Amino acid sequence: MIDHPIVDAHVHLADPARFTYPWMDAAPSLKRPVLPADFSVAAAPYVIDRFVFVEVDVASPQQRAEAEWVASLAKADPRLQGIVAAAEIEKGAAVADDLDALAAIAGVKGVRRLIQNQPDPDFCLKPGFREGLALLAARDLSFDICVLHHQLGAVIEMVRRAPNVRFVLDHIGKPGIKAGLKEPWWSEIETLAGFDNVWCKISGVVTEADHQAWTREEVRPFIERTIECFGFDRVMYGGDWHVVELATPYPNWVELVDWVVEDASRHERKRLFRDNAIAFYRLDG
Hints:
CATH superfamily: Metal-dependent hydrolases
Structural class: alpha/beta
Radius of gyration: 17 Å
Low-confidence stretches: none
CATH architecture: Alpha-Beta Barrel
Number of helices: 9
Strand content: 5-15%
Shape: globular
Strand order of the largest sheet: 1-2-3-4-5-6-7-8
Order of helices and strands: EHEHEHEHEHEHEHEHH
Mean pLDDT: 97
Number of domains: 1
Helix content: 25-40%
Largest sheet: 8 strands, parallel
CATH topology: TIM Barrel
């Protein structure tokens, strides 16, 4: 049982009247305004006392504007303490100005460039992408890795070549739960966890199962495997709201994760549900 407020490391906020989200056309239930007040309603009865916004794949020209908009929301809601902004890392040296602008926005802690959508299997290994990644450390920005399970091999090589970057893997690398696949994800998640500069979010995993027919028992081994590999010192809870609603209401996801770790110590559970997100995203500083 969770007996302390939760820090959610992965929350989406959106306003389709303000920004363009092309991907939402394929998920019309998500194409609606979602603001901090809506998140409070969706999370009840759980208390989320801090959360991190993660970019929502807006159309390219709107990426900086999205981060600025979220920073304005944070002024009215002190729970919103971190922003992971969108940045086209593959631009290489040319992304420096974008990174400087983002780093100057209050609350920006890291960046994300969606790799999962890229048809080129070596997208994150191209010279431009590697050059862009190398610019993050000097600006004290982390990088959120969002990939599908079959892209983990390239991600492992990307991380190997960027030892100075702080990485966090979103959604445990999106394993093929619906298809009943364990390998190579099962082996590669252990390899990735071998890099000390990589942390992992236990976030949105149910969306990788059958949205209408998933079971706790089906999802549990993937969460357990992730914690086994990363340990309780490098995993953090993420709600992946509002995308998680494709498969389940937000409180059900909290309850599932809580159930998986019910035998863990209070200290370990607090690391997962609170302390690690604060540490990784430096929410106290």
